[in-house]
Every structure is written in C-alpha cells, then in structure tokens.
Amino acid sequence: MPVDDVLRDIKGKVRGVIPPSIDITDVEFEGALVVIYTKHPDKFAKNEDIIKQLVKMLQKRIAVRPDPSVLTDTETAEKKIKKIIPKEAEITNIYFLPDVGEVTIEVMKPGVAIGKQGVLLNEIRRSINWSPKIVRTPPIQSKTVKEIRGYLRSMSEERKEILRKVGRRLHRGVSDGEKFVRVTALGGFRQVGRSCSLLHTQDSKIMIDCGVDVSSESSTPYLHLPEVLPFETLDAVVITHAHLDHSGLVPLLYKYGYDGPVYCTPPTRDMSTLLQMDYLKVAAADAKKIPYSAEHIREMIKHCITIDYGDTTDITPDVRLTFHNAGHILGSAIAHFHIGEGLYNIAFSGDIKYERTWLFNPAVNRFPRLEAIFLEATYGGREDFQPSRQEATQRLNDIVQSCIKKKGKLLIPVFAVGRSQEVMIVLENLVRTKKISEIPVYLDGMIWEATAIHTAYPEYLNNKLRAQIFQQGENPLLSDIFKRVDSIDMRQDIINNHPEPCVVLATSGMMNGGPVMEYFKEWAQDKKNTIAFVGYQAEGTLGKKIQKGWEEIPLNVGGNIVNIKMKMNVETVDGFSGHSDRRQLLNFINNMSPRPERIIFGHGEESKCVDIASTVHKRYNINTLALYNLETTRFK
Question: What is the 3-state secondary structure (H, E, C) of 533-565?
Fold first, then answer.
C-alpha cells in the first residue's frame, strides 16, 4: 500500500477513536512515530486510555503534540515557568524545541522542580501547552552539548521535515518475494580501524558504523562497492559509539549524497561531533587531506535520531533497532536488529567491556532473541589476558609513587573519551584515600570537554558512580586536583617551568599527534620522567614504537626530522582498556542468553580473529567466522 494511503487509513482510525471534543489538527509520520497534533493536549493528558487503545490498534509508537497555534510564545512561557517552579530548584537554563513542542528546564534540584507526584510539571503543561522536561544541570558546562542543542533548536523546522521524510520512507511497506538477510564487511575485519558493515535485506540497506583508521594509509572503508552506492539508496546509518574508528567518516556520506537518518545514543551524537571536529583540526594542522567539512558534521547532527538503551524503534519497513549498553565508552551500544516479523535477529557488538569498570556497567549479553552476533576480537588472542581494574589501580599507584620519589613528571597519553575519565577517577581515589600525596594532574587536549559531556549524561554511568554523585554529592571528575590546560602558554609553562612532580594526561592516546607530543619532545630525554601507556597501541603508531623499546625516536620538529634519545622510563598499565580481554570475551559468549547460532569476529588483528573463532567453535559448538573485508555472508 502506498505511504499516502497508509497515512490516510491511520488518520481515519485515529479520528474514529478520539472523541469529537478533542480537536485533532494533523496526523503525520515523524521517523518511527505516528504524531498526533491537537489543540487540546491537556484532554489527552487526562485520558491515557485513548493512547493505549490507539497503540494496540495501530501497532505503532504514538506521540501527542500540541498544535503550534496553541503553544504560548517562548518569552511568556519562560516567565510562567519561572513563576511556577520554586526558586530553591535553581533554574540554570530553559530551552524550547518547537519541532516537538517540548521545553527542557535545567535545574540544580530536579525533585523540587517536578513537585510531588509531578504536580508542577502538570501545572506547566496546562499553563503553556509545551511538554516540560526537567533535567539536572551538568556540573561542568559542555560547549559541545550547548552548541548542538542550540543548533538543533535553530533547525527545528528543517528537522521536522527530515523526520517526516524518514517516516514516509520507513512506512512504505514491505515487498513480496524471497526474504534474505546478508552482511557485507566494508572495513575493520581482520584489522582494527575503519569499522563498517552493510546489513542488507530485501527491503533495507543499513550501514553499521563508518570509521576511519587514523594510523594507516588505507584509512577508509570500502565505500565504493556497487551494493553501497549510490549513498542515497541507504535507508539508515547506525553508530555503535563515538570513537573515530567507528564514527569518523559518517559526515563523508552526507558530502556524497546520503540524506537519511543516523541512529545513535544521545552521548554518542555529542561525543562523535567533538571527535570529528578535532579530527578535521588535526588533519589541517598536519597538512593532510581533509575528507569533509564542518558543514557535513552539522548535516549529520541534523539527521541524528537518538535512542536510549532499551528503547526499540522501527528504522526501515522490516527492521527494528534496540540499543544495549556495551560498557566501552560513554553511550557505547550493542546494536540489536530484529528483522521481519521474527524472520531473524542479529546484533553488532561494536566495542564491548564485559566487566564493571570505574565508569560503566558491564556489557549486556541477554536479548529477547538472537540468532547471530558480530563480535569484536581486539584482545581475542590466546595470550590476551588483562589484569583486573583493582590490579591496574595498584600498578598506577606504584608508578606515581616512583615518579614522585624521583621528583619526575608522569606523562600519560590517553584517548579523550573513556580512558582519560577512568584514569582521572583512579587518581582522585588514590589522592582522596591518601595512598599518594596530592599532586596536580593536568588535563590537556579534549579531555576537559569530553569530561564535561560525561557530566551531562550521568544516567549512562554505572550505579555506584551515580549514587556517589547524586546521593553523596561527590563527583570524582570534579576534584580540585585536576587542572585544565587551556592555553599554549600554560602548556609551555608546565613543560619548562614546573620543578615539582606532576601528572599530565594528554591526547592523543597512540601518540599520532596532539598535545602529548609537546610534552614528550621536552621530557623524553630526562630519566627522572616516566611515560605510562594505559590504552591500546596499534602497530605502526609512535606509541607502539616507544612501547617496543626504541632508543631513538624520529620526530618532526618544525618541519625537520630530529632523532630524540629515549631516556624516560616507559611503563604500560594493562587493565584500563575499554575492550574485553580473551577471558571476558569467552565469558560474554558463555553467559549469553539466548546463545546465538553464529558468531562473526572482527575488529582485531587477523591472528586474533582466527584464534578466537576457532576456540569458540571447539568449546561451544557454535558456527564461527572471521570475515575478510569485502566478503559477504548470508544469514537467511
């Protein structure tokens, strides 16, 4: 049935159920939602049974929104909100989203603003007709979050059009004929970097991740394949998490004609924007070819449809998507696809951590249904066993103690997202419990801004950390020991004029550029100093060379190659990784419910993918596969 006929049929059913006293002005598709616009939102709020009846009848998610004509103008609405919400709630920000008729109110004390049993929320809704949403004020204001929300507000009309277009495409109905499910490996198979897969059914083409390998010349996925092109034929792009090897080339798709939705969690949208903008900056500074512009990143933001963990949404006529916590970085998700009416269920793990970390709960491995899963194998080799978080903490403690004793400096190259916040929490804990003396910890690069985004999404942190933040009023990420390096002058001052011991966390994590290089150039030739690696170092990166014990390091200084003699102490602290080691990967599979029929391994060096695939097949009698890039495998 054509989309217009489907919509006409839905409108007829809606008007047949809703009493004539409730004025319905429009019914539209917006993404997966059927949106009902009404001049009487208060009457809908009082009668929940109508919505339940419609959901049951239409088998679709329904949102009720006030007709724009009944929304109080924003200036008057803001005054009324401030009059209704008590002063002690401490409002810090109010912003309106006209495209969905919502107003978000940031406050220091959400409970006070909501009122007993939501009485104040109901009063706001009745008074201004906007749907109010109360959120806690982030303790550090994130420039990225603020700018993205501001941009989306300024694009509200355009965004509404995008959502309507997406809605019409995904409600176009399924075709007759043979049903099939297949996946093409476009990047990140038998290697780490440029992750990208294409999930293809008779009615859908969905790209999962579209990353860049910043450590290699072959940095882009195989996007030129005939089944991928033209990009306009893609129905959806799904991003598992923000790291550049998974999200770095999504804006490129918009440069070359893609105009569909990107599905991710809210923190992934914000974090990937931060990392993509930095990627452009670093590429320009290194005089490398810039693959896309900031305009294409904005296009991606505009097309983002965010979903929280556990929420299920239709993304094409025959595919439903659910995100589950992956435990890797803020907002990282395992993407679970339910295809057809029970035809097939397939999941893509992205990067997972099957252990409770300082920041996150362990990756989810229980699903309603699952026939196949694509699983990472970064540490899937038979020798890949990592220490626990507790052992890693003790190791870092010993390194800091030793550095303080020698009156040296400790340089820790980190990825801005994930590892830096874990190391921060451990250092704060060591200082607070007086295991190490209080020394300054300088944060250089994007770490401060990435940390600010963490504080904007406390609901994505683990239970223990949330309780510490909300119930005890202690946020370890806000400790006084952390100092933000906010200028080149401050960086130079720390490098050249800091006689006392200190710790510096600086990006980038594999030492392929970034502020960490400025410290390294000056501190590498002093044996009192130490460099400690806490994250994965890919083959070919400078970090890997230092880790291997190179005694002379060639560096580009002012356009000339200079050999720096390595005298500083080199340490590696395993156990901080956001990836599961071999033991955790096997436990993840062993405890998985239901156990899948097939597991496809990727995101690991070739030997590790092959090794774990062989072990899992022998141990659990599951069909396994270590795909090559460019291979296609059929599931149904």
Answer: ECCCCCCCCHHHHHHHCCCEEEEEECCEEEEEE
